[in-house]
Amino acid sequence: MRRITIQGIGTFGGFGTGVQALAQALEKGLVAPSIRAVPTGHGATELAALRADLAPLEVLVQARTLRRMDSFSKLALLGARLALEDAGLEPAGNDNLGLVIATGYGATTTTTYALMDSISRDGDACTSPIHFANSMHNTAAANISLQIGATGPNLTISQFHLSVPSALLTARQWLLDGRVERVLFGAVDELSDLMAYLWMRQRGEHWAGPMAPLATQQETAIPGEGAAFFLLSARDEVKPSYCTLQDVSTGRHSGPLACGTDLLVLGADGRQAFGATYAAAAKGARVTCFTPHYGSMPSGPAFDLAAAALMLRRGKAYATPASEACDFSATVLPADAPLAKEEISCLTFAADRGFGRIRLGGV
Amino acid sequence: MTQTKPVAITGLGCICAAGDSVVACLDAMFRGDRAPAPPVRFTTTHPYPFPVFEVPQFLGEPELLRTSALALFAAREAIVDAGLNRETLDGLRVGVCMGTTVGSTMNDEGFSRAYRAGQEPDLAPMDLILNSNPADVIAREFGFMGPCQTVVNACSSGTDVIGLGASWIAAGICDMVVVGGADELSRITYNGFISLKISDEAPCKPFDVQRKGLNLGEGAGILVLESEQSRQERNCKARAFMLGYGSACDAYHQTAPKPDGDGLKRAIAEALACHNTEASSVAFVNAHGTGTPDNDRVESHTLAAMLPGVPFLSTKGYTGHTLGAAGAIEAIFCVACLEQGRIPASIGFVTADPGLGGCPVSEPLTFTGTVALSNSLAFGGNNAVVVLGRGDRA
Question: Do B153 and A156 count as a contact with CB atoms less than 8 A apart?
Answer without folding.
Answer: yes
